[in-house]
Request: fold
Amino acid sequence: MSADYGLRSTMRPVSRRVRAYFAPAVAGAPVIFDPAKSARFDLDSPPAGWTDLGWITNFKRTPETKVIAVHAGAKGETSTAYRQNLGARVEFEFAEWGKLQMALAGGSQHMNVLAADPNGDAVGSGGSALAPVAVAPNSTAQEIVLGPGAVDAFAVGDMVAVDADYMQQVGYVGTWIPAAYVNDPLDVLRDRDYVRRVTFNVGSVAGKTSTSLLLAQPLLGGTPPAGSNAQKVIAFVDREGGSFFQQWSALFVVEPESGGRICFHYPLLKIAAPASEASVSQQTLECVTLRAVFEALAITDVNDSERVVCFRSYFPAASAATY
Reply:
């Protein structure tokens, strides 16, 4: 039976770009994108836990799982096959720079450069900081209450880190997103501001009242923990080296210009290469992008207990052919 392919409805996803969403894998627990609930995943306002990191370029997926053939019989014919070295590699370039983009591309502790005490020593990741300002307990994720007079330490347009003092604890530090791991309190003995140096609880001041800072976006960690302080952030810095490795869940969405949408969900990714950049020519300008390379870690799919590293979903356009 012949088929007139000119009458077939579109089955070819066509896209100009790929959009990236990341969520922290707190304590190694992946954040799952369920394709059955995709209608609830608003690309412009993703569900809690996921952060939109904008458009990416040069997106490349490389399967590293090997398919091994088993040979048997007098002629050594293939009798069966199995998979080994389950894994995958993902690389791309962030088109936009920001704290999360730099942290993901660097893969180790990502530092907030706190406004410096002019009398402090010079340090490559930022020297001794100006004294922090106490945060009132009635603060929210988007309104940081400091009190009359205290708000004068910050101006509209400033960035601010909001988190607790470092209290000589061992283990992960940073509200919600693990920002660093302290093995020995002696390593950061002199720095009560260490948690605020690495925290992801950073926001931009969009407005002020007589007592509060109003942030442009809610803090990623939500309401500041009890005993939090606020400090001005003037820049971000990452370092090549270090012993801390971050883990993230990722969703890459191929936005359709016509046809359907494709989603690549990696439940667990860890950095696979040190921080680097690339230059992309745009007419007479050079656009500097952040190159990121990840190794995918396996999880168990609870539907059938199979170990997998990626889920690829295809959402056909309305009335598209099924096959």
Notes: The chain has two domains: 14-70+82-107+245-315, 111-238. The chain is about 5% helix and 40% strand. The mean pLDDT is 91. Residues 255 and 261 are 6 Å apart (CA to CA).
